[in-house]
Amino acid sequence: MKVYEAIARGLSDLGCTEMFGVLGDGCVYVIDSFRRDCKGRYIAAVHENSAVLMAQGWARVTGKIGVAAVTHGPGLANVVTALIEGTKAGTPMVLLAGDTPVADREHAQNINQAQLVAATGAGFEPLRSPNTIAEDLSRAFYRAHTERRPIVFNMPVEFQWLEVEYEKPYLRLPETRSAIPSSTDMDDAIGIIASSRLPVVLAGRGVCDADAEEAVLRFARRIEAPVATSARGKGLFNEDPFHLGISGTIANEVALDVIGRSDCLIVFGASLNKYTSGERGLTRGKRIIQINPLPSELGRCTPVTVGMVGDPGLTADAMVKWLDEAEIPGSGARNDDLQQELENYREKAKQKLVHSTPPGTVDLYELAFAVDEALPKDRVYVSDSGRFMFAFWEVLSVPNPRSYVDCNGFSSIGLGAATAMGAAVAAAGRPTVFVTGDGGFMLGGLSELATAVAEQLDLVIVVANDSSYGAEHIALTMHNMDPDISLLPSRDFARIAEAFGCQGTTVTSKEELQKAMAAVNDRDRKRPLVIDVKIDPASVYGGTAVARP
Hints:
Elements: H1 3-13, E1 18-21, H2 28-36, E2 41-44, H3 48-62, E3 66-70, H4 74-77, H5 80-89, E4 93-99, H6 113-120, E5 123-126, H7 133-147, E6 150-156, H8 184-195, E7 199-203, H9 210-222, E8 227-229, E9 243-246, H10 253-261, E10 264-268, E11 287-292, E12 306-309, H11 312-325, H12 336-353, H13 364-374, E13 380-383, H14 389-395, E14 404-406, H15 416-426, E15 432-437, H16 438-444, H17 449-454, E16 459-465, H18 470-478, H19 493-500, E17 503-507, H20 510-521, E18 529-534, H21 544-547
Parallel strand pairs: 1-2, 1-3, 3-4, 4-6, 5-6, 7-8, 7-10, 8-9, 10-11, 11-12, 13-14, 13-15, 15-16, 16-18, 17-18
Helix pairs in contact: 1-2, 3-5, 3-15, 9-11, 13-20
């Protein structure tokens, strides 16, 4: 067969079922063979950057390696932002990129692709020859899994029409589920826990399945500690009465108080970055035990007292065993007073967070509460970057961490729409809600509505439309400067969406908000629904997320 056919079949034999991409002469033949010969699903994006983001959204929801394909030169240059986002977010994916012929030095699309990729932090894996397709492709997938970042598989076009005898690629990923049965680190961890008066268990995205979540929760109950999550651990411990919520810069007031007073943090599967640690304000002066399957994560963001390499669930169970054998009592931190405080906060949160706004606008928290109630609890939630996200982070729930995807690795607005479309492809019948701002939606969302319509995605897009660049509006106002330059023209996103073939509705009042939520229930699940909600740019400050540093 031809080299391009062997690459397509190799992808299929490695388990690839979906590919996102934009056609170009450096990748079109691989894409066509994958779709036609291998019966894979090809999702055609409008822009190359979007194709890579779609693959990342798909990977985040499925827990598998996403795959995208672009052409050489400008095709690859267009994905720089997406590769950086994937690298910073630790998302495993393989990007197939065509490359211009080595002999054609004057080719208009010739660039040094290896150097371009290196600048993004992604990995680069070249197809060395037609005879090494199986080995090179397998290595790209292996690296994506173990290095937790995008890997660019570079395909020289002069190879693609050569004849080759097909060799099936072989890929066996390493078993990473392990626990330390006993060690000095385990002894030290048990000693710290035994002497703690107010421990808090904090879990992140590394607690990625129900078994691990249950094990960590068993551990928390054994030491009588309340639980909290990182932002990307959202969805864990939903039913636990002692769940404090998200830790860090977006924590609620009860979580800030309890975590602030704690003397010990036991961290499972979270990096404990500056956001989760509240710019170190919630970790300073505390003894910290960190458990992560990746040695490179231990102490990477915050110094820890004890670091243990191991699977979060298995290590949690091993720690319970040692605690039981040593007959160490619980801390007593799971008490009636804390439970009552959490219940009171949850009951009053809606009234406390919602504020009045000028006519023609809706409060951001009121919008978040309405969206949370309108959609079934088993949904996927994708967040773009922007100041609107603090309200939705606090309010919108998800059933597990793989049902939540943010686009904040690079803190760039405009990455969410394409990511949400990849997540919606992976959602397997569940609705996907995507929340964005008007600036981000204009930057990276509108053109890809064509893709969402073509793929008949069950996608609810909520545009928090404050007609401004929010972060800049805050910055100018805080310095007593006129925020006029941050304001954007008023745009009717519902009508624009309808022109693409979406459903669309506009919200300018509480009454229209209720009608929009009814439209969510009555929507055509084979067409995206875009809800354009008018927000007062000056009223976003009323939420507690803005009030907290």
